[in-house]
Amino acid sequence: MENERTPEQLVAGLIKLLEPKPNGDDHFTGRKKRGGVGRVFGGQVIAQALLAAETTVDADRPAHSLHAYFLRGGAEDFEIEYEVARDFDGGSFSNRRVVASQQGRPILNLTASFQRQQDGLHHVDAEMPDVPPPEDLESETAVRRRFAETARPEARHHFLAERPVEMRAVEGRHWTNPKPAPPRSHSWFKAVAPLPDDPRIHRAVLAFTSDMTLLGTCALPHGLSWARGEVMSASLDHAVWFHEHFRADEWLLYATDSPWSGGGRGYNRGRIFTRDGRLVASVAQEGMIRKVVPKVQD
């Protein structure tokens, strides 16, 4: 494709996008996505809000969890304003509340918790899934470009867009196969070029990526996909727990499952592992998901 950016340029653009600009008095502005069209990606808003909150907390207190509610869809035509409330600073923990607004209307509420690093009881009861390594899987860029040839015209740009995070799906993407499947999926992901050593950036990139593939998990048993115009979907809430140190520019495995869907909603969970099997983050999300009823032609 013409005018493609290098991996380094894509990652630099992602970092610039996710890092909000300070406006004084715990107010920040999130940039617009370059070439963005339509609705703002939820992972972008979550990551910008998290970094805004982290700016107001001492560096020795990394984020260990975030909980977000999506109130209404944002538009990629406008920047996003973030207001941070310093609700709590204790001996070990801090808490921040963030309201993301666009054109004077809130689009997301996020609460993040931070902890001074300390020793404690430790156990892990999460086995690394036995899946092929990323080197054995086709690049999703190739899969997306191939699918774009037959995709709905209004969705084609989504599949042709350059991506600063590379993903490789073990089972293949739901939008490529209409056959019903178990509500479980596995994807490897990492930034396409090295990231700075700042752990805040790695947490932001993981939070950004955690909104990918997750909601689609609850559609797998039904063989439906938004890409084929078969469902309407939108994230309602999203939570991330950061467990251990990781790098988002090294391969991470995102294992997702959906225990339940009903009433126009789908509940999804995710676990994120390093290649050596460490569980470094957990995710949970509920989203709106509705089957599109085809219009009857007169």
Walkthrough of the structure:
The structure is a single chain. This protein is of the alpha+beta class and 298 residues long. It has a single domain, classed as Porin. The protein contains 5 helices and 12 strands.
CATH superfamily: Acyl-CoA thioesterase, double hotdog domain
Overall pLDDT level: 92
What string gives the helices and strands in order?
HEEHEEEEHHEEHEEEE
The N- to C-terminal Cα distance equals 41 Å
* Low-pLDDT runs: none
User: How large, in whole angstroms, is the Cα Rg?
Assistant: 19 Å
Tell me the CATH architecture.
Beta Barrel
Number of helices: 5
Largest sheet: 12 strands, antiparallel
Class by SSE composition = alpha+beta
Which keywords apply here?
298 residues; alpha+beta; Porin; 12-stranded antiparallel sheet; 5 helices; 12 strands; 17% helix; globular
Write the layout of secondary structure elements.
Elements: H1 7-18, E1 21-22, E2 27-30, H2 42-55, E3 63-70, E4 80-89, E5 93-102, E6 105-115, H3 140-148, H4 156-160, E7 165-169, E8 184-191, H5 199-209, E9 231-242, E10 252-262, E11 265-274, E12 279-291
Antiparallel strand pairs: 1-2, 2-4, 3-6, 3-9, 4-5, 5-6, 7-8, 8-10, 9-12, 10-11, 11-12
Give me a quick take on this structure.
This protein is an alpha+beta fold and about 300 residues long. The protein contains five helices and twelve strands.
